[in-house]
Amino acid sequence: QGRRRSAALGVWGAVSGGAAAIGPVLGGVMTEGPGWRWIFWINLPVSVVSVWLTLRVVPESRGPRGRRVDWAGTAAFACFAGAATYGVVRAGSQGWASAGTTAAFLVAALALVAFVVVERRSAHPLLDLALLRKPAFVGVMAGALAFNGAAFGVVPYTSIWLQTLLGLSPVHGGLVFLTMSGASVVVAVVGGRLLHGVPARFTIGGGLLLIAAGLFCQAVLDPGSTWTALVPGLVLVGVGTGFVSPGIAGAALAAVEPERAGMAGGAVNTFRQLGYALAVAVLGTVLTSTMQHSLSHGAAHTLAGGGARALDGVVPEHALRVAFASGLNTASVVAGCAALVAGVLVLALVRAPRASHRPPGATAVAAAGDGREPSVEKSEATSPPKKPAADPR
Predict the structure, then answer these.
(1) pLDDT at residue 387, rounded to an integer
(2) Are 156 and 174 in contact (CB under 8 A)?
(3) 31 Cβ contact partners less than 8 Å away, ≥ 6 residues apart
(4) pLDDT at site 77
(5) How many CB atoms lie within 10 A of CB 387?
(6) Can you list the residues of the chain whose pLDDT is less than 50?
(7) What is the rounded distance in angstroms from the CA atom of residue 318 to the CA atom of residue 380?
């Protein structure tokens, strides 16, 4: 509770940042060594150790008796997320009006409608739709959806640019992103304790605005640019990530009642992953569409997929550099605009209720609305009941 909780969330954010730092470098080592397929096998030992640690050191906890898993809601949402992502991917390769794209989006729409119907009728919904009437919860979810997508959605295509056009090795390409993840780790560790008590709308909203600024700074590439042109923008994105990553988890928990903490935690993580998946697909479409202003449809898709060598002798190298730089700039601007809009929404929606409207003993609720740790000492709701006065008779 209190400052210790802020510090714990800061460590949690730092661990996430550390993993982000190790991932590209370790992936580069495996790609240059045993081969790129090994990047999938690395999940097995990590998962085994994680399961063992969880069983050994995490205290057991159980939800209320009688609750059931919302299998229908889970299936409907999974269908929606998969179909929507697939539709965006198809749109990038086949066009937005193609039959496959239209069918995918139709399935996604029907699955979303089914999800809403199921959740409204379920006694134990996967996501209580009543939470969407809470501005603070909506703001946090908007921030979560944009956060991973904006901060990391351009990274795969930047990595392709670094390796296929600048000639960096996979390891060297991974080391470039240490500027971003390193800044994220430092800010998360230091900020977790120092920013205790600062309203979440400022840490999350401000962090998203920093991410937007960093993405706009990355949109300065030209045919002669090297990896150093990315460093200022990557550092800004890393600083913003260090503010958002630990804060958004705490804000999600604080925006709902304690008994719905698990639901809120699951929702914020789901929205983060969905935002990343959709962003990679959307930004890939933006990248290739921009490239097609100077390249053919096939050449643009080949270049975006890392096939620059296949275009040697077919398209001049300068033309490839011009196209890729232009595409990355546009993708960075689009991602930056998404972070900017999300940051403004968080600043506007994640607010505490006015003091004049707070009922007695609502200190904890008021703090939750602003994403801060409730003050246990001042909350009458958590105080032991007063001993009744003795009967004068």
Answers:
(1) 45
(2) no
(3) 39, 170
(4) 94
(5) 6
(6) 355-393
(7) 69
